[in-house]
Design a protein that fits this description.
InterPro entries: FAM107
Shape: elongated
Number of helices: 7
Organism: Canis lupus dingo (dingo)
Protein name: Family with sequence similarity 107 member B
Helix content: over 70%
Radius of gyration: 47 Å
Biased composition (Basic and acidic residues): 76-103
Strand content: under 5%
Keywords: Coiled coil
Length: 155
C-alpha cells in the first residue's frame, strides 16, 4: 500500500528549495568595494520638512496633541450632519415652547394674525385703487355721489 522513501535526503531536498531566499535584486557595487572614487548615495533632503513654517506647525500640532486639543478639521459631511442635528434640537425646543403656551396666548396670536391679514387686504385695495385707470376712479366717484344724493332725498 504505502511506498517507503529511500531516505531522508529526498525530504530535505524539497524543503531546502523552499527555504532558500531568492535574491531578486542585485546588490549595489558600493557595498562590496571600498573604492573612494565611487560617489556614495545620500538620502535626499526634503525641502518641506526643513522649512521653518513646517517645523513650527509640526511642533504646534504635537503640543496640541499632548494637551488634548485636536484640530477641528472635520469632513464636510460630518459638519452638515451636526448642523442638522442642532437645527432639529432647536426646532424641538421651539415646539415645546409652543405647547407650553396658555390658551390666552394662543387666542391673542390668532387675533394678531387676523388683524395683520386685514391690514394687508386694506393695503392691497388701496394699491389697486391707486393703480386703477382714471375713468374707473371717476365712475366710482359718480356712484358715491349718486348714493349720497339718494340718501339725502330719502331722509
Amino acid at each position: 500500500m504505502f511506498q517507503q522513501k529511500n531516505g531522508p535526503s529526498e525530504d530535505t531536498d524539497l524543503k531546502d528549495t523552499y527555504l532558500i531566499p531568492r535574491n531578486i535584486m542585485a546588490e549595489p557595487d558600493y557595498i562590496e568595494d571600498d573604492n573612494p572614487e565611487l560617489i556614495r548615495p545620500q538620502k535626499l533632503v526634503n525641502p518641506v520638512k526643513t522649512s521653518r513654517n513646517h517645523q513650527d506647525l509640526h511642533r504646534e500640532l504635537l503640543m496640541n496633541q499632548k494637551r488634548g486639543l485636536a484640530p477641528q478639521n472635520k469632513p464636510e459631511l460630518q459638519k452638515v450632519m451636526e448642523k442638522r442635528k442642532r437645527d432639529q434640537v432647536i426646532k424641538q425646543k421651539e415646539e415645546e415652547a409652543q405647547k407650553k403656551k396658555s390658551d390666552l396666548e394662543i387666542e391673542l396670536l390668532k387675533r394678531q394674525q387676523k388683524l395683520e391679514q386685514q391690514e394687508l387686504e386694506k393695503q392691497k385695495l388701496q394699491e389697486e385703487q391707486e393703480n386703477a385707470p382714471e375713468f374707473v376712479k371717476v365712475k366710482g366717484n359718480l356712484r358715491r355721489t349718486g348714493q349720497e344724493v339718494a340718501q339725502v332725498q330719502e331722509s
